[in-house]
Amino acid sequence: MKTDVIVIGAGVVGISAALELQRRGYAVQVFDRSGVAAEASAGNAGAFAFPEVEPLATPGILKKAPKWLLDPLGPLSIPPAYALRIAPWMWRFWRASRPSRYQALVAAQVSLMQLCQAATERQIADTGGAAMMQRDGQLQLYESAAEFRAALPTWELRRRHGIAFDLLESPEAIAEIQPGLSPRFTHAGFTPHWWNTVDPKRWVEHLAQVFRDRGGVIETRPVRALELSDTGVWVRFDQGAADAGKVVVAAGAWSHHLTRTVGDRIPLETERGYNTTLPPGAFDLRLHVTFSRHGFVASRINGGVRIGGAVELGGLDLPPNYKRAETLLNKTRQFLPGLNTQGGTQWMGFRPSLPDSIPVIGRSPKSPHLIFAFGHGHLGLTQSAGTAELVGALVDGTDPAIPVAPFTPTRF
């Protein structure tokens, strides 16, 4: 088979891009270092979080960081061994949180989320995936009136952009949506147009199987370097190489290692996320629940409960600290008094994150044949189908559905 496009990465973004390019008539081959959904796409919370339009880099966020960083098991941590290395990324994060930049980031995120919601519906219909979706909404919890009031600007931001929600101001109102929560949660916001997949790994495997059934090829084979030519891009392995007219880099937290081989230095960092997945029967969880102040969530996965989140900025090489997963589980026992915490499986994965909280989607400045699609942070699943449609337009050379200038690789 003559390959028109090579996609590097078999996570949800890469597989979605491969499917979309295949739909547009291209012969596509996918290479991945570990296999389909073997990294962050396997163990995330399974959420399509379209209402989450506010970037992490918000004005004033660094005033909170010192308090968080004092707790090594808190919602944000930087291991001491990694602190110096991440300093340039944190400086860019601070610059992105300035009010003028923040407004532009919100606008970019809103336009991308609107595209992604519509694109995901198209993807579900095209691949027969409706049975793998749970359209029950999300409950964002607060432990006091003061905490709730502090969050109201975020809810007002969502209102201005047409995102539907209901605000709940009593434990009784919350219990009507999700029984069994601790009464410490006095206020909440309910977003009905949030949905989850029954299992993010199964969803990506489903998409990959559709891609294969339609003639696509996926190989587990680490890509070591890229090499540009006048007519395309060569992909170099430990042994051998392959070439195509277009190459899409969608390798998640490993993407920047590949871009450096052609001279593109993208400030990608790794948010290490932790979770524990409990078996069916652990708790009667009826929708996705976010524990706002604590930085983690509970979601339904295959009839069980996945407790995960928090941010550890520790790179790809440091060993996992599973005490973070244990801390989240212990907190959840207090928040969900009836939770059975026995029989859980721990996991740690790498979220590919850029300092301004939006992904890179665009052509390499070094070559029009090389296209980047990575850095989605917590929102890879959410933004995968929309990113795929933008990649399709970039490969076609047609106008994308939304402007891609905010996502350009040259913005740093």
Provide keyphrases for this structure.
single chain, 412 residues, alpha/beta, FAD/NAD(P)-binding domain, nine-stranded mixed sheet, six-stranded mixed sheet, 11 helices, 21 strands, globular, oxidoreductase, FAD-dep_OxRdtase, FAD/NAD-bd_sf
Uncertain segments: none
- CATH homology superfamily of the domain at 1-57 and 98-133 and 195-268 and 354-411: FAD/NAD(P)-binding domain
CATH architecture of the domain at 1-57 and 98-133 and 195-268 and 354-411: 3-Layer(bba) Sandwich
Q: What kind of assembly state do the chains in view correspond to?
A: single chain
What is the molecular shape? globular
Give the % helix: 25-40%
* CATH fold assignment of the domain at 1-57 and 98-133 and 195-268 and 354-411: FAD/NAD(P)-binding domain
Overall pLDDT:
93
Strand content: 25-35%
Distance between the termini: 38 Å
**What would CATH call the class of the domain at 1-57 and 98-133 and 195-268 and 354-411?**
Alpha Beta
Biggest β-sheet, characterized?
Answer: 9 strands, mixed
Structural class: alpha/beta
Domain FAD dependent oxidoreductase: 4-393
GO molecular function, one term: oxidoreductase activity
InterPro entries: FAD-dep_OxRdtase, FAD/NAD-bd_sf
Keywords: Oxidoreductase
